[in-house]
Each structure stands twice: as C-alpha cells, then as structure tokens.
From TrEMBL:
Isomerase found in the keyword field: yes
Keyword NAD included in the entry's annotation: yes
InterPro entries xref list: Epimerase_deHydtase, NAD(P)-bd_dom_sf, UDP_G4E
Organism: Mucilaginibacter pedocola
Record-given protein name: UDP-glucose 4-epimerase
Reaction catalyzed: UDP-alpha-D-glucose = UDP-alpha-D-galactose
Length: 346
C-alpha cells in the first residue's frame, strides 16, 4: 500500500460490479474512497469483501442521486473530495428498450444532479461511458474519432447524452476535468474470488448467465441469434477483464492529477482490441473450466449491436494503460466467483 494520496475520491455506485473492483484498485493505489450507492442493484456485504481484500473498508453512505437535496447536502459537507468516478446508472440494453423513461431518469437526471452539486468546485471526473455510443460502427476496430451514430437503444442514448452534457459542462466550467471511458464488455472477477458480478434477479449480461447455467441456477442459456454477419453467426464483443477495467480508472485519475490533459474533456476506448463471439465465449468457458453448458439458440434481441471491438492505442499512448488479462482469465475467474457465492450466499 502506497502513502495516502491527498483528497478523497467519491465513487458513485461503488458497491456495484465495476465500482467495487475500482474501489479495490483505488485503495491499493493509496486513495481514500467514499462510496455513494442506493443499493438498488448491489449488496451491502460487498463492503466487507472489499475490506477482506484491501485491509480497509471504504466509507459508505446510502444515497439516491435522484434525491437532489440530500445529494447537495452531502457534497457541501465533504469539501475534501478532489476526484469523482461515476458508475451509478442502469445498464441493461434490453431493459432500456422496454423501460426508456426509467433509463433517462436514472442515467441523465442523476448526472445533472451530480454536476450541479459540484458546480464551482475543482474536481477530476471519470465517467463510466460505453462503446454503445458508436452504435454499429462502419469500420472495425472502432477508434475514438469514429462518428457517434444514432443509438441502438435508450441505454446507449443515455451514454451519448451523458457525454454531451459532460463535454459542454467541462468546457464551460473552471476546474472541472472529465475523462469518459468508453468500456467494451467487462467480465470476470477479482483473483481472490471475493468480489465479482452479482446481478439482482435474472442476469442481463452474458457471462453471469453462463456461470449461473453452469452451476444449475438457470436451466438453459439462450444465445440470442446465430445468423448475424459474423463467422459463426453470433454477436461479437470486445470482452475485457473487470480488474483491467478498474485499473483504467486509476490511470485516468492520475492523468488528470498530473495536469496532462490536452483539453478539459477527453475520451478513451477501454477494451482489449480483440473480439470474441458469444458462441466462442460459451465454448471457451466449457474448455477452460471443464464444465458443460446447456444452451440453445434464440431469436435476436432488439437493440443489440452485431459486432464491435475497439482500437485501444490511444489509451496505451496517453493513459499508459493496456489490458493484461485474457479471455481465459476472465472466464476462469468468473467461474471461481460463481462457485464462491454458491457456497457463501449474499
């Protein structure tokens, strides 16, 4: 553990999947962390798991970012916050198609409230964005200069709008620096198997559904479509280990703290630079973990992008970051986490 850095880092949604892994990496890098979370899609026991990994429990405050008065009161009380990582948002493409207003309220109004609460303050802001801002790219791998196309889902649209809000606010503000990290598809779990993806109810992402099917929590895994324009007909994604993704947030903070930003608002692709199809992931999971999966082919889902993977050269050159863990690490750690929570229910 390095010496404690100056200023506290606020992590919204910090008991969630990516948030918890990022809190671990922040604490291991010497930051003091405060988590805000309403626990709508996470579990308070994650705080104990973080402490077991790092030796220190982060400060935690239960707060809903939609409650503007409570949020403003909190921010006014904590004057030593110098950095902010914003994860708190709804994140399912399929759910957003069915409940668009829920996504605009949870993802846009909360961002506006957060920026309003910190107005006039000097703060380094890392935004949890997504490769969905690119829609279905014309050229692969997609770079940060690719056009932002019409969103394929309300979820994707909230990320596009969120980026626009942040870019305009950063350029209009004195002291607000923003880095938007455009994630590809985070999977896997911490090497300790003490934290990982812990969806409430039916999983919305592929790998938790894979692991839950493998351990017989789910009867069958549905692969949504097998006649897309890809080698095996299933969708292709750039899967990235969640620990690598968490480290990218620490790198983004370090860039802002060092005064290296070329402008008050920057974007970076955070992925591996390689694509794997859904069927490849299924087959790789079976071979790596020596288990059989019961899966079937279903109809395509509305809002899904056919294929996308990222060019991550900019992150390597300017953030000094690159993914280090491969698909085998992702799937073996996800399976270790699933077995852990099966024996140690949350």
């Amino acid at each position: 553990m390095s010496d404690l850095k100056q200023g506290k880092i606020l992590v919204t949604g910090g008991t969630g999947y990516i948030g918890a892994h990022t809190v671990v990496e922040l604490q291991n890098s010497g930051y003091e962390v405060i988590i805000l979370d309403n626990l709508s899609n996470s579990n308070i026991k994650i705080l104990d798991q973080i402490k077991a990994i790092t030796g220190k429990a982060p400060e935690f405050i239960k707060l809903d970012l939609r409650d503007k008065a409570e949020l403003f009161e909190f921010v006014a009380t904590y004057l030593d916050i110098t950095g902010l990582i914003h994860f708190a948002a709804s994140k399912s493409v399929g759910e957003s198609v069915k409940q668009p207003l829920l996504y605009y309220e949870n993802n846009i109004s909360t961002l506006v409230n957060l920026l309003g609460a910190f107005a006039g303050r000097k703060v380094n802001f890392v935004f949890s964005s997504s490769c969905t801002v690119y829609g279905q790219p014309d050229v692969l791998p997609v770079t940060e200069t690719a056009p932002v196309k019409t969103a394929e889902s309300p979820y994707g649209n909230t990320k596009q709008i969120g980026e626009e809000i942040l870019r305009e606010t950063a350029h209009a503000s004195d002291g607000l620096n923003v880095i938007a990290l455009r994630y590809f598809n985070p999977v896997g779990a911490h090497a300790s198997a003490l934290i990982g993806e812990l969806p409430n109810g039916v999983p919305q992402n592929l790998v938790p559904f894979v692991t839950q099917t493998a351990i017989c929590k789910r009867e069958v895994l549905t692969v949504y479509g097998n006649d897309f324009d890809t080698p095996d007909g299933s969708c292709i994604r750039d899967y990235i280990h969640v620990v690598d993704l968490a480290k990218a947030h620490v790198a983004a903070l370090a860039r802002m703290e060092a005064g290296k930003m070329a402008s008050p608002y920057e974007t970076f692709n955070i992925g591996t630079g390689n694509g794997n199809s859904v069927l490849e992931v299924v087959q790789k999971f079976q071979s790596v973990n020596k288990v059989q999966l019961n899966y079937r082919i279903g109809p395509p889902r509305e809002g899904d992008i056919v294929k996308i993977w990222g060019n991550v050269d900019k992150a390597a050159a300017e953030l000094g970051w690159k993914a280090e863990l491969g698909i085998e690490d992702m799937l073996s750690s996800a399976w270790a986490w699933e077995k852990y929570i099966n024996s140690n229910p949350f």
